[in-house]
Design goal:
The structure is a single chain. The protein has 410 residues and is of the alpha+beta class. It has two domains: 3-13 and 27-32 and 137-223 and 233-351, C8orf32 fold, CATH 3.10.620; 35-134 and 357-409, Immunoglobulin-like (Sandwich). It contains nine helices and 23 strands. Strands 1, 5, 6, 7, 8, 11 and 23 form a seven-stranded antiparallel beta sheet that branches. Strands 9-10-4-22 form a four-stranded antiparallel beta sheet, with no helix packed on it. Helix 4 packs across helix 7 and helix 5 runs antiparallel to helix 7 (250-263).
C-alpha cells in the first residue's frame, strides 16, 4: 500500500475511534479576542534621475488625468473579524484628494476592495493611508469531528468556489497563466497517482501540508527593497517554480500549498497579516533589521451541512509548521498551527492576495495595492509600503461590558 493511503488510513482510524472528548459547538472556535487597529501606508514617488549632460536632477511630475487606487478590505477570516468600518485617505503631494473610499465587492476568496479616485493632478508623490480596525482570535479546531466530513456532492458555495479563479503567483505569472505541470507532478507523486478525493478533505489537507514542509528548503526573507532601503513589496517566484526548485521564501511555501490544495480540488486562499507579536521594541517596522512582522498562511474550506454557517475556514500555517520541525508529526497526532493556532490573536489579517484581484498595476513588486491610471501609469516610480498597529483603545461602554462579563464569569 502506498504511504499516502497507508498514513491517511491510519490517521482516520486513530482519530475517529480514539476515546477523546468531542468539543461542543462549531468545528472551529475562536478564543482570546484582541482588538487591533492596523495602519497601512503606500507611497509612490517620482524617481528623480540625474541628467548625464547637465549633472542636474531631471524631474518629471506624475501627469494623471484619472486614477483609481485600490487596497483590500477584509470582512472576516478564520482568525479575525472586522471591528469597524475601514477608513483611508489619498494624499497628493501631502494634500488631501479623496477620503471617502468606495467599497467594491464580489472578488475571489471574499475580498473587498477600497477604491479612491483622483482626477487631473500633477504631482511628485501619491500616498495612500488606510486604517483597518479588527478583532483577532486564537483558533481551536475540532479535528476529530472535522475528519468525518466528506467532499460535498453539490458545487461549493460561492466564496469557496471563487478560490479556484486564477490568482497571481498561485497559477498565474506576471506574463500570464503559468505552466502548473511541476505542481501537478508533485501532487501525483505524493498521492501515488491516486485520486486525492479518495481521502477526507481534512486528512488530505494535513498530508499535503506535511509534504510541503519536507519539500521546501527556505531561503531569503521574501522582501524586496527600493533604492532608498524602504520595503518596496514582496519577492515571489510563483508556486510552480517552488515546486520545481524545492526551495524558496516563506511566501513561496504558502503559494505552493495553496496551489496544491486547489489542484486537488480543495478550496484554499492565501492569508497575509501583520504580526504584532513579532515586533521588537525600537525596530523600524519592515526596515532591513525587522523583516519578520509580515506573515502568511493558508486557509482551506470545509462544508458542514449541519451547521448554521456551513462553510468553515481552517488555518494552516505551513511556515510555523516548518519552523517547528522539518519532519512533521504523524498524521494521527494533533498539529499545532494546523487548525488550532495559538498566535493568531496577535496577528492582523489584511489581504487574501499578494496583488489585488483586478486590473491594476503596482511598481516593481507586489505590495497588496494597485492603481489604474490614464493616460498611462507612470514609468519612473519609487514604491514603498509600511505598516504599524496599536491595541484599539477601549471606550467606556466597552470596558463596562468587559467588567460585567468577568463578574458573570465569577
Amino acid at each position: 500500500m502506498h504511504s499516502f493511503v497507508r498514513a491517511a488510513c491510519a490517521a482516520i482510524v486513530a482519530m475517529v475511534t480514539s476515546p477523546a472528548h468531542a468539543q461542543e459547538g462549531p468545528l472551529l472556535k475562536r478564543e482570546k479576542p484582541h482588538d487591533w487597529t492596523l495602519r497601512a501606508v503606500v507611497t509612490v514617488r517620482v524617481n528623480v534621475e540625474i541628467d548625464r549632460k547637465t549633472k542636474m536632477p531631471r524631474r518629471e511630475d506624475f501627469d494623471i488625468q484619472t486614477a483609481a487606487v485600490v487596497f483590500p478590505f477584509l470582512r472576516e477570516s478564520a482568525g479575525h473579524s472586522r471591528a469597524g468600518d475601514p477608513t483611508g485617505v489619498l494624499l497628493i503631494d501631502n494634500r488631501e484628494c479623496d477620503k471617502n473610499p468606495q467599497t467594491l465587492t464580489d472578488y475571489p476568496s471574499g475580498t473587498e476592495l477600497g477604491k479612491w479616485t483622483m482626477v487631473d493632478w500633477k504631482a511628485e508623490e501619491v500616498e495612500l493611508q488606510v486604517t483597518l480596525p479588527v478583532t483577532s482570535f486564537d483558533t481551536v479546531f475540532d479535528e476529530k469531528a472535522a475528519i468525518r466530513l466528506g467532499w460535498p456532492k453539490d458545487p461549493w458555495p460561492p466564496v469557496p468556489a471563487s478560490t479556484f479563479r486564477p490568482q497571481l503567483f498561485i497559477d498565474v505569472g506576471t506574463e500570464g497563466p503559468a505552466d502548473m505541470t511541476p505542481v501537478q507532478d508533485l501532487l501525483k507523486k505524493w498521492t501515488g497517482g491516486k485520486d486525492p478525493k479518495s481521502l477526507p478533505p481534512v486528512t488530505l489537507a494535513k498530508f499535503l501540508a506535511g509534504e510541503v514542509v519536507k519539500h521546501v528548503q527556505v531561503s531569503g526573507n521574501g522582501l524586496r527593497y527600493n533604492r532608498k532601503g524602504e520595503v518596496e513589496g514582496l519577492d515571489l517566484q510563483g508556486a510552480w517554480e517552488t515546486a520545481k526548485r524545492g526551495r524558496g521564501s516563506e511566501w513561496d511555501m504558502v503559494c505552493l500549498l495553496t496551489a496544491l490544495y486547489r489542484q486537488a480540488g480543495l478550496p484554499a486562499r492565501t492569508v497575509i497579516g501583520y504580526d504584532v507579536g513579532d515586533r521588537k521594541a525600537g525596530d523600524k517596522f519592515l526596515g532591513r533589521n525587522s523583516s519578520g512582522s509580515l506573515r502568511a498562511w493558508v486557509e482551506f474550506a470545509l462544508l458542514d451541512p449541519s451547521a448554521t454557517t456551513p462553510v468553515v475556514w481552517v488555518p494552516v500555517d505551513v511556515v510555523r509548521l516548518r519552523k517547528s520541525s522539518t519532519r512533521p508529526p504523524p498524521l494521527d497526532k494533533p498539529w499545532s498551527f494546523f487548525g488550532t493556532h495559538d498566535e493568531l490573536s496577535g496577528v492582523i489579517p489584511f489581504a487574501f492576495q499578494f496583488h489585488p484581484p483586478t486590473d491594476v498595476v503596482a511598481h516593481g513588486s507586489a505590495a497588496f495595492w494597485g492603481w489604474m491610471v490614464t493616460p498611462k501609469p507612470p514609468e519612473r516610480v519609487i514604491q514603498a509600503i509600511r505598516f504599524d498597529a496599536i491595541s484599539t483603545p477601549k471606550r467606556a461602554e466597552d470596558m463596562k461590558k468587559d467588567q460585567d462579563r468577568r463578574k458573570r464569569g465569577n
